[in-house]
Amino acid sequence: MALAPRMARPLYRQFLFHPDPYPHDIETAPNLGGIQGEDVYFLSRRGKRLHGWIYENPEAKDWMLVSHGNAGNIANRTALVHLLLKAGVSVFIYDYQGYGRSEGRPDIPDICYDGEAAYDFLCAEKGARKENIILYGESLGASVAGYISRVRGAKALILQSGFASLERIARESLPILRIYPDFLFPQSFLNNLSVLQQPHPPVLIAHGVNDAVIGFQHANHLYKIAVGKKTLLELPESAHSDITMSAPEKFRAAIEEFIAGID
Prior knowledge:
Elements: H1 9-16, E1 18-19, E2 31-32, E3 35-36, E4 38-43, E5 49-55, E6 63-67, E7 71-72, H2 78-86, E8 90-94, H3 108-126, E9 133-138, H4 140-151, E10 156-160, H5 166-173, H6 192-196, E11 203-208, H7 216-225, E12 230-235, H8 243-246, H9 248-262
Parallel strand pairs: 1-7, 6-8, 6-9, 9-10, 10-11, 11-12
Antiparallel strand pairs: 2-3, 4-5, 5-8
Helix pairs in contact: 3-4
């Protein structure tokens, strides 16, 4: 019982979160596709100073709020941000607590609250409204995006390489956890099955067929369970974290088509 996820959160935190410090050679947000990024700072629910990049696309009416995966930081996502800018949106990407220049250390509820704080900052500072905010989540961040959609609302939801639920991926990754029932896992913040079983924004589920980290069957499960407008994008040439390199044009075109279909 002492090793159950709910009882031993510090032990399992090291398996779930792999943050990197901010690179010393990047002083400010880079220029991507001719758009100069803006470094911004905002406070988490618990008062930690969080860092992000904002890219205002002069031709865009929609904002993409990006919640990234469990490794690295925003500096590792320049290719993704560039792809999204080319798809015709403005972009706000942020780091959770403990990642990059953000203070604190990551934990399951806190990364979700960080997503809420980023959403609220975008509304307060840039005048964004839920009718023009698209929530983009990558891997672990897909569940953060799902959480934000439930507590704040959004125009649409894009889940890239995400898992169905924390309990499921934990049991698949660490078979010893299969002995524990669901109630011995932390409160289920990271559960897109529960998000998509209820009314939800239009959702695009994108997943590499060759994903060995989070199997493609997670995408199938999410697609089947979703009750609202939904699209499943299979990427046969892609694995887990290489979509912007292995299928950039196909992915960008799918995002553009998805957004056009909900306007």
